[in-house]
What we know:
alpha/beta; Rossmann fold; 2 domains; seven-stranded parallel sheet; 14 helices
Amino acid sequence: MKFNEFNLDSSILEAISYMGFENATPIQEFSIPVILQNKDLIACAQTGTGKTAAFVLPILNKLKDKKESSIDTLIIVPTRELAVQIEQQIQGLSYFVSVGSVAIYGGGDGKGWDVQKDALVNGTDIIVATPGKLLSHLKMGYVDFSKVKHLVLDEADRMLDMGFSDDLNKIISYLPQERQTLMFSATMPNQIRNLAKKILNSPEEISLSISKPAAGVSQFAYLAHEDQKDKVVKLILDSRKEYDSIIIFTSAKMKVNSIVRSLRKNGYQAKGISSDLEQDQREEVLQEFRSKRLKVLVATDVMSRGIDIKEINMVINYDVPHDAEDYVHRIGRTARANTKGEAYTLVSGHDMHKLRRIEKLIEMEVPKLTLPEEFGPVPVAGAASESAPGAKKKKKFFKKKKKPSGQNNTPAPQTKA
Length: 417
């Protein structure tokens, strides 16, 4: 479906065309008409499917003739990176429309607080905010949300995972009862449904490809001990010299710097990004990565949903994420918007059970690749963790399956075991 079929204002269509978009993604195709009809919505779709434009475009369409300087739309997100990303996309899509927006998040200086306060006191069409920082402003007593017409909760599941449930309830208590509420989530656990029942009014529901990686991602795994992982990363990168945009994810921020040092030692330009960096430092690193001046970015899980960068060639999971859902979000950084990409996961002995949970969630076996003989012994699929006291051998839990569709890309260094 083309964007000009949505009956959007010509100025918005001009901005869409200027940004190079023509056809709507499925989540946009289903969501935009519902939002234009002023219905509440709960939408579930995987990362990288165009959710931001799905709610920003129809809201901009409603705001195009707004005259008064009041806060019309509140978008709440889990991380500062996502707040910045959405606010930037709003600026791009509203280029030919007189709509103002401000991102409110922590980690800045006193000047940043003053800019945020001014937007909340004097009114700005769209506010994009993280829960904690927004609550700090609300407690000061100068925020007027009485004219808010739209509330958007983006990455709602992530916010609940991060412990923002009470904060969300407090923020929502400041809003008018009469409003349109839109909830977007990558997964749909019971706690999300319970929240939806409390804050949405007879919502329409859209579910697309829940917890499944994008079809364009070719997935592979290497079984490797912890002390082999740096060499495995080098093996993968050496086989893909032509790639210029690669993300390596780790579950522990303490590993970020050591991975970066190993990459640089092996001749790869790399930088790390984690919650240890100040916001301006993070943005500087991300800008280098976006502009392709930086080839390899090493990041923690907290960054996995806050990085919106097109044409990422490959994702490497240095270790298996703790939650199976996070695997989907990590590898969702590549193969966005119908493109192709590769994802490699390094699995140590004590992470075998995590990989099994992932395979159960995505309903497919991740193909295991064989390391060259010079790497020495590697973990055995199905063996008990070598670190567990009194560990015994178990039967292999990886069943032989037919080769999944969409995995016709040639694996990087070796053939399937």
